[in-house]
Amino acid sequence: MPVADASPTRASWAVLFVHGALSMFFGYALRPLISTEILDGGHSSAWLGLATMVFAVPPLVLAIPAGRLLDRTGERPWIVGGSIVYLVATLLVLLSTTFEGTVNLAMLVIASGVIGLGSLASILGSQTWVMHGAAAGRPDFWFGLYTFALTVGQLIAPALLWLPGAAERHTLATEPIAWTLVGVAVVAAVLGTFVPSHGSPASGGAAVRKVRSVVRRVRQGGRDDEGTVRGTDASAGRSRSGYAAPPTGEIEIPPGSARKPGANEAAGLGQDDDREGMLRASLRLTRREGVLRTLVASSLVIASIDIVIAYLPLLVRDRALDAAWIGGLLMARAVAGMVSRLFLSRLTSWFGRRNVMVTGAAIGAVALIAMATPVPAWALGVCIVVYGFAAGTVQPLTMSWMTLITPARERGLMTSLRMVGNRTGQTLVPVLIAGMSVIGGGALAFIVTGCTLVLSSLASMTAPDGDAVGRRER
C-alpha cells in the first residue's frame, strides 16, 4: 500500500516514459511478427485468434493477485520483471525458427502467452506508478503524456518490419527483427532499475522506518478513523524512493504497524495474503459507481487495438499488398495516436471528457468497418489514421476516469481490475473473431471489431467531465 500520493521527480517521469516507449516498441514489433510467422507456416487464420487469446490469458488469470502484491512491493520489480519476460518471449520466437510444422506453431503460440505475462508486469507497474503520480492533479495531462510516450514506441516499432525479408517481400525478416528486440528488452530492463517505487510497506525501506518512527512519536495523539496519523514532523519529508511526503504531513500507517485494526484492516484491505479478502476487495471496488462502465469501455478499445495488430497482416495478405504495408499502416496508426494525445488535455477542456470518449469510440468504429470494404490501399491508410486518432483519445481517458473514482489505497488493485477487464475483452473478442475470419477473412474481423467499439461508446456516456470525482476518498 503506498505511503502517500506524492509527486515523482521529473527525472523519474522521464525514465518511466522511455521505458514505456521501449516496452511498446517490443510488443508492436514482435506480435505482428508472430502473426506473419503463423501465416507463413501455412496455418489457418484461426490460429491468429488463438495466439491473441493466449496473449490475454496470463493477465486475465493473474492480474488481481498481482495488483495486491504490487501494493506491497512497489512498482519497480514489476517494471524490470516485465522487460525480462519480454526477453524470454523473443528467445522463444528465435528458437521457433529452427522447427517446422506443429512444433513451430506451438512455440509461437507459447511466445504470445509469454508476451502477455510480460505485458502484465510492465503495464501493471507503470500504470500504477502513473496513477500515484497523477493523483495530485491534471490526470488527463499526465496520462496523455504517458500514453504519448507509449505511442512513440508504437510508432518506431513498425520500422523493424521493413527489414528485408524473403519470398519477394511477402514475409518479414524474423531473425534480424528478433535479435533487435533482444537488445531492446535488455535496455528496458536496465532502465527499469532507475524507476523509483512508490513507497510501500514491503519496499519502502527507509521511508517505512520513518513512518513507523513518526507513528511511535505521535502514538499518544491517537489516529483518526481512516488509519491516518497527523503530524508536522519534518523528518517525514522526501524518502529515498524519490517521492516527497504530502505537504499536510498526513502519513498512512503501514499494515501491521498499529496494535489496533483501523478501518482499512477491518474492511479486509490489510489481509493481503488472504485470497478471500482480496476477492472481497475486488468485488467491493467493482460496485463503485462507474467502475464497471470504465472497465467495459477500456477493454473494448484495447481489444480493438489487439485485433488490428494481429489481423492486419491477414488483411494486407487478402488484399495482395506488399508486406511493407503492414509496417506502414501500423506506423500511420501510431502517428495518429501520438497526435491525439498531444492535444488530449485541450480536447477534454473544449468538449468535455465524456463527449470526447463517446465520439472517439464511435468514430473509431466507423473507421474499422470502412477498412473492411474493398477500398484502395491509400484509403486503408486514411481509415487507420482516423481509427488511431480516435482510439488514442479514448484509451488514456479511461485511465483518467479510473483514477478519479478510485481511492489511493486501492489504485494497484484497480489497475489490476482494469487489466482483467482488458484481457477479458482481449480473450472473448478474438474467440468470436477467430472462427469468423476463416469464413470472411480479415475483413470480417475488422467489421466485428468495429461493432464492439459501438458498445464502448455507449459505456462511456456516464464518464465524469470534471477532475473532482472521488477526490475526497484519496
From TrEMBL:
GO terms for cellular component: plasma membrane. The chain crosses the membrane at residues 12-34, 46-66, 78-99, 105-130, 142-165, 177-195, 290-312, 324-344, 356-378, 384-406, 427-455. Residues 234-245 have a biased composition (Low complexity). Residues 290-474 form the Major facilitator superfamily (MFS) profile domain. This is MFS transporter. It is found in: Cell membrane. SUPFAM superfamilies: MFS general substrate transporter. It comes from Pseudoclavibacter endophyticus. Residues 217-272 are annotated as: Disordered.
